[in-house]
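Re-running Histidine phosphatase family protein to confirm reproducibility after the cluster update. Everything else is unchanged from the original entry.
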Amino acid sequence: MVKTLYLMRHGQTLFNKLQKIQGICDSPLTAKGIADTKKVGKYFQREHIKFDHAYSSTQERACDTLELVTKQPYQRLKGLKEWNFGLFEGEDQFINPKYDVKIGSVGDAFVPYGGDSADAVQKRMVEVLTDLMNRKDNQQILAVGHGASIYLFLKNWIPLDEIVKHVEMKNCSVLKFTFSDNKFHYNETINVVD
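Result of re-run:
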């Protein structure tokens, strides 16, 4: 049986607006983040998209996003948290390690500074989302998480050049996947806000 995952990035936060590195550190949703998140909720209502269950990262910006999108109960999961950027947390984005185009990430660059490796984050995301989709009563679910960890999850299922050419993942983007035989199949990115 084919199941469906709607994987949403949280709304714009203060650190997004200020271009600060935001992984395990948190900042509140901006007025734009709140308004955009409500637009996504209205989109789901308009399209008659309902969820068996909803899940969020334990971080406040993701929980707040989910609560603005739907009023249904949800479960917070540490496995959906953002990448830990170690000592880079809260710093200006321009000091981020150099992106390696060959591997499509910064790899282990944050590890010497107390952060996670890209592979560890990707493995965690694949495991938690696979577990959720394998639950008997989960046919169509919503999960709210974070840009970098969602990107690494997506990179596990489609080639990097496809992501670069076809996937624009802004705040409040929703990636739709189908799931069968323990594999995720990327369908589309839903962007209802500017």
